[in-house]
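quick q for whoever's on today - can somebody do inverse folding on this one?? i tried earlier but teh output was garbage lol. tokens:
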């Protein structure tokens, strides 16, 4: 398969979060042909591909799951773009990973390359299988560097925002809708608070010359049990993307202040921001080869999780971040080829572990 054929196959193999098993099995079967079964380890619906005794490997990292379908059709190509669920986030990156791992010259280079294909990234943080992979394969923490092939707008994107989801609620008193004065409407009670949330603006935060934008959004709401009952409970999810200069605890305090006035506030999900203090020869080479600008990563990615295990990592992959999770998701085919070519050059040029040690 060429890159476009690989991406078509990936997009047309459904792998919404929680249903990645079939695609994981098919990727494994494909990689057996190159690496043999002994070098392809499965953890849940995730895969680690490459030698287990690597001294200081380079990791290629990508998630195989997608957000839920919004009724997208099977993949199709139009005007130089491939359209379909997951085309940009991030099956285009997974396609590049597969072709780099299968590239004979890259494999013969005196530098171990490990592929990590994992499930559950688009769901809650505690269901992200990269954590299980890193726990079950602790030797991965010896990696010299990792490239996460998330969509990056043809930029080398550093770090990432942290993530909080909070469940907030308003309480009322139920009553017959014909006599609302006998109750208290929990939904309309939230009106002024929702209006204030609607008016929140992104807050730019500059760190090391990079601009991260903190944003707080209401993403889900649920209330009421019948058309003729005044609701006594209104629950909402509030999503906060915070800059890398805040810890989870600091971000929680900030979000609690913003949500002042609610009757209940509970953190449901949290993930730390990604570290940005990266100074590494492979990063320098990637910036040079790609001629890509160094930019902030606005969304959350697993550079944060890798950083927690001491693995320096950056985001660089095909696709446009503005199309991620959209019904009209697509990717430029030229970007697919460009990222593959740039990463292939970087990997072929990467110094051996001993040479890197000398550089430090």
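ok took a stab at it. sequence:
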């Amino acid at each position: 398969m060429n890159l476009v054929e690989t991406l078509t196959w990936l997009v047309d193999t459904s792998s919404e979060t929680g249903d990645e098993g079939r695609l994981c099995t098919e990727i494994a079967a494909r990689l057996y042909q190159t690496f043999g079964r002994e070098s392809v380890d499965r953890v849940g619906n995730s895969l680690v591909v490459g030698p287990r005794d690597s001294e200081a490997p380079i990791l290629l990292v990508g998630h195989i799951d997608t957000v839920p379908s919004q009724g997208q059709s099977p993949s199709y190509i139009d005007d130089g773009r491939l359209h379909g669920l997951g085309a940009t986030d991030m099956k285009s990156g997974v396609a590049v990973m597969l072709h780099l791992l299968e590239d004979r010259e890259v494999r013969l280079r005196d530098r171990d390359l490990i592929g990590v294909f994992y499930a559950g990234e688009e769901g809650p943080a505690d269901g992200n299988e990269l954590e299980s992979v890193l726990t079950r394969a602790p030797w991965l923490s010896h990696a010299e560097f990792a490239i996460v092939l998330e969509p990056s707008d043809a930029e080398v994107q550093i770090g990432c925002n942290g993530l909080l989801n909070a469940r907030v609620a308003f309480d009322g008193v139920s009553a017959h809708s014909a006599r609302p004065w006998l109750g208290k409407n929990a939904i309309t009670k939230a009106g002024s608070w929702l209006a204030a949330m609607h008016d929140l603006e992104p807050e730019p935060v500059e760190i090391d010359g990079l601009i991260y934008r903190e944003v707080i959004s209401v993403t889900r709401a649920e209330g009421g049990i019948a058309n003729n009952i005044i609701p006594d409970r209104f629950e909402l999810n509030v999503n906060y993307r915070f800059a890398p200069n805040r810890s989870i605890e600091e971000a929680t305090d900030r979000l609690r202040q913003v949500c002042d006035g609610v009757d209940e506030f509970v953190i449901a999900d949290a993930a730390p921001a990604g570290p940005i203090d990266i100074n590494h020869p492979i990063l320098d080479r990637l910036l040079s080869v790609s001629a890509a600008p160094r930019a902030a990563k606005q969304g959350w990615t697993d550079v944060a999780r890798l950083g927690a295990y001491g693995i320096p990592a950056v985001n660089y992959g095909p696709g446009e971040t503005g199309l991620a999770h959209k019904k009209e998701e697509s990717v430029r085919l030229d970007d697919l080829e460009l990222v593959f070519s740039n990463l292939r050059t970087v990997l072929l040029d990467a110094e051996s572990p001993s040479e890197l040690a000398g550089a430090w």
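fwiw The chain is about 30% helix and 25% strand. also The radius of gyration is 22 Å. so keep that in mind when u check it
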